């Protein structure tokens, strides 16, 4: 099983330029170059917010970060200390990994979801300001898995295959999907279980696979069938890990080969039994 992975999408929104004066003096125009806020953040991971800017040669006055219009971090190079953290529910700043351009949040909570804004200002006399904002939603990816349980290593055509796939401790609930030979399994082969809710709350999602193994589902060249399960948290452009199980499914051709080997061995064994019986009877008759 591979380690659970997620794809992050940094959102860069339009920048609002604000000036407290009709004309902005200074050496150059202040610009917000890039704002990176992950659209989806895993509850069990840290998050780095990135605000890149160009002061145009003017002196930086401050960089402020807001969540839902509430300030939680400020960087002011002219003060000592340069950084200032404000208590805000759901926002835990790692000061050792935060600076004038980045802010690291850890640990995350569900209340960490919201709108994040970066506000950059240069120095007097005009204090021009640029602002950029983006939304972030906190999710919880499967803690372990998804995990496939109940499969045997060997199957014969005609056997009944039963297995479960479970994605544990997610938020929101995970959507579980089964694949056979990379094709999504039809719903009539599935068994749906009630959603389990644990503290958090977190959700455990289980989907069963139940079907009679048919010959046309088996790769006749390799005598195997690929069974795969994937879990995805609803509403997130997140890539889930997939657990692959390869099955060696015995076909009619394989069975005929095994029967041939068995029958050949049986004939060979019976031949020597007959010879041994004749030898014993011969010895017994000679003694009498």
Automatic annotation (TrEMBL):
Gene3D superfamilies: Immunoglobulins. Keywords: Membrane, Transmembrane, Transmembrane helix. InterPro entries: Ig-like_dom (IPR007110), Ig-like_dom_sf (IPR036179), Ig-like_fold (IPR013783), Ig_sub (IPR003599). Coiled coil: none annotated. Pfam families: Ig_3. CDD domains: Ig. Residues 45-137 form the Ig-like domain. SMART domains: IG. The chain crosses the membrane at residues 6-25. It comes from the Eukaryota. This is Uncharacterized protein LOC112685665. It comes from Sipha flava. The gene is LOC112685665.
């Amino acid at each position: 099983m591979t380690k659970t992975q997620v794809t992050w999408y940094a959102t860069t929104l339009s920048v609002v330029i604000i000036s407290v004066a009709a004309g902005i003096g200074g050496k150059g125009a202040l610009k917000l170059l890039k704002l990176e806020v992950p659209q989806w953040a895993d509850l069990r991971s840290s998050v780095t917010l990135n605000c890149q800017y160009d002061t145009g040669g003017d002196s930086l006055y401050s960089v402020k970060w807001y969540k839902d219009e509430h300030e939680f971090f400020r960087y002011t190079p002219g003060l000592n200390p340069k950084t200032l953290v404000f208590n805000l529910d759901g926002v835990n700043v790692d000061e050792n990994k935060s600076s004038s351009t980045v802010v690291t949040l850890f640990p995350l909570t569900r209340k960490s979801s919201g709108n994040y804004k970066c506000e950059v200002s240069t120095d007097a006399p005009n204090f021009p300001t640029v602002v950029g904002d983006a939304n972030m939603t906190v999710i919880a990816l499967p803690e372990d898995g998804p995990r496939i349980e109940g499969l045997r290593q060997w199957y014969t055509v005609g056997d009944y295959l039963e297995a479960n796939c479970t994605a544990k401790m997610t938020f929101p609930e995970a959507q579980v999907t089964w694949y056979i030979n990379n094709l999504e399994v039809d719903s009539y082969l599935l068994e749906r279980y009630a959603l389990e809710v644990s503290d958090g709350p977190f959700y455990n999602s289980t989907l069963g696979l139940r079907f009679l193994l048919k010959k046309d589902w088996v790769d006749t060249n390799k005598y195997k069938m690929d069974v795969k399960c994937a879990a995805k948290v609803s509403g997130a452009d997140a890539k889930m890990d997939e657990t692959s199980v390869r099955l060696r499914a015995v076909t009619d051709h394989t069975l005929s080969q095994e029967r041939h080997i068995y029958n050949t061995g049986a004939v060979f064994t019976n031949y020597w039994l007959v010879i041994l019986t004749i030898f014993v009877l011969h010895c017994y008759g000679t003694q009498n």
